[in-house]
Structures are given as structure tokens and as C-alpha cells.
Amino acid sequence: MSRSRRLWAACAALGATALALGVSASPVLARHGTDSMGYTMDAYGVLHPLTIGGTASPAEDSGSASMHHWTWKIARGLAEQNNHTDGLVLDGWGGLHAWCAPTSCTAPAVPSGAPYWAGWDIARGIVLLSGSITQGYILDGWGGVHPFGGAPAVTTTGYWKGWDIARGIELNPAGTNGCTQSGFVVDGWGGVHPFFTSDCTSPIGVVTTTGYWKGWDIVRGVALDNDGKTSNAGYTLDGWGGIHGWCAGTGCTPPASPSGPYWKGWDIARGLVSLGSGTGYVLDGWGGVHGYGGQADPGFSGYSSGNDQFRDMDLN
């Protein structure tokens, strides 16, 4: 029996109860990735290396004075720089915390200008500008996209004041439609909403989705296809592991939904990474990482059977 089926057999009843009660896990960030190193992150802020194609990510320097590992489940987002050895962790209050690998490394300085909501668990995701660890955007639960480190301001097309419903953010590193920066936010019902800088030569079109559940907060992440570079198409991830194509622009055709892990009735899928061309990885709440679209499962550390505590995953 596959690991996915064993997980479902063990906890289907628990997952169904959670859904009936309207319980959902903390939203996660989904991101593209084309290289062979990455990490998963648990809710306490601890990073766990992945092994992809025989190449292992360097171990996080948990002894660094700059690291923040909490005793409560407050970590919300993970961002890795292109060199695989440092990045940022986002906490629920909006705090940014630098990390580095391997052991005895020096963590980078924390960027300035980030929003902070002391005592309020409302930060939901983080993305970095391509090749940068000092500039990027933080997503709040109402749909606000906040620049830090001097990243340009953006216009959002999805904002829900007073409603914690934004669930994921994805940045198009090359921009599109003439924009310096652009990207997408997904809400819990499955709607995908563009954001962009003021220099766009033409508006990013209305998004066509293949997965939308009005009134049901079940979507957990969003990712661009085509290696996340110039595409206005990608996938959303629902809590049961379903992967659903979407695209932006008049008359566009969403990519076909690829095959992958699926836990019917159990809200346990937590993160989505696209490798392009309909392949990538899904993170489950126990820390398992599963290939989709024919991609082989990578090796992973930190698996916590029966404990829904993993919140994010990043490759770069």
C-alpha cells in the first residue's frame, strides 16, 4: 500500500471531522522552482532539507543566533535565495527572520520596510524578487500585498477587508505585460487575482479557473507553470491534494490538471511547487513531499506522522 493510502486510511475520519467543523490549516505559500535543492518548513520555523535527484540541500544552521525557532505554531512562510544557503522565514505577525545553511554560516541581514502586526496572526505568505534576499512582498490574510526592502508598490485586484481569506501568493520574477513586477494571489475558495506594478503596458486579464468552491475555504496554494518566469498560467492546490489549472487573459486555456497525490475528504495538503510543464511537488501537513505530473518523490527529512505541523516548501 502506498504512503498516501496509508495516511488516508489512518486519518480519514479525523480529516472529515475537521472539514465538517470548518477547520482549516494555516495558509501556505506555493512557489516555482527549477533547481535541485530546497526545504520544507514546519509551523515552529524549523527547516528540513530535501534530497532531489541525489542532491541533498545543506542542513540549516539551527545553532545560529539569528535563527528563530518558536515553541508555538506561528511560522507562515519560507523564502529561499537562489544560492540555496540562505533566505527568510515569515511569522504570523509579519516578522522576517533570516536563516542560513550549512552549519556555522552567517545569516543575512533582515530586510527593512516590512509590515508588522504585533499580536495579530495575519501574515500569510512571502515571495522574493528574483535573485534577491532584500526585496519582496508579504501577503496578509485580507489580500494586501506589501513590499519590503524597496520593492515597488503594486496594485491588487483581490482585497477583502476584515476577512482572513487570502491563502497564497506567487510572483512572476520576470514580470509580464510590461510590468516591472507582477504576480497572483489565491483566495480560499479558489479565485486567482493578479497584482502588478503601475508600469504595466496592458492590464493582466481576468483569470479562468478550473477549481472554484464558493463558500468553502479549501484552497491552500497557487503556483505558476512554465518555471514561473513569463507565464500567466499555473495551478491551485486544494486541501485534499487536487491540482487545478488556471490562466490569465482573454480566451486563454488553463493547463490540464496533472495527476498527483490525493486524500479525498482529508484537508492535509499544505504546499505546491511547480517545476514547469505540469510537474512539481505537493507538501502534506505531516511533512511528506509528493511528486505530481510524473515527477518522482524526493527524499525529505523531518517527517512527523500524525502531526499536522508542516506549513511551507520552497525550491530555488
What does this structure look like?
With 316 residues, this protein is mostly beta strands. Helices cover 6% and strands 36% of the residues. A hairpin with a 4-residue loop joins strand 20 and strand 21 (289-292).
Count of separate DSSP helical elements: 1
Indicate the mean pLDDT.
86
Percent of residues in β-strands: 35-45%
Helix content: under 10%
Secondary structure elements and pairings:
Blueprint lengths: L2 H18 L10 E2 L5 E5 L4 E6 L2 E2 L18 E6 L5 E6 L4 E5 L22 E6 L7 E5 L4 E4 L6 E2 L9 E7 L9 E6 L4 E5 L10 E3 L9 E6 L8 E6 L4 E6 L20 E8 L2 E6 L4 E4 L6 E2 L9 E6 L1
Parallel strand pairs: 1-19
Antiparallel strand pairs: 2-3, 2-23, 3-4, 3-22, 5-6, 6-7, 8-9, 9-10, 11-14, 12-13, 13-14, 15-18, 16-17, 17-18, 19-20, 20-21
Keywords:
mainly beta; four-stranded mixed beta sheet; five-stranded antiparallel beta sheet; disordered N terminus
Summarize the structure.
By secondary structure, the protein is mainly beta. It has one helix and 23 strands.
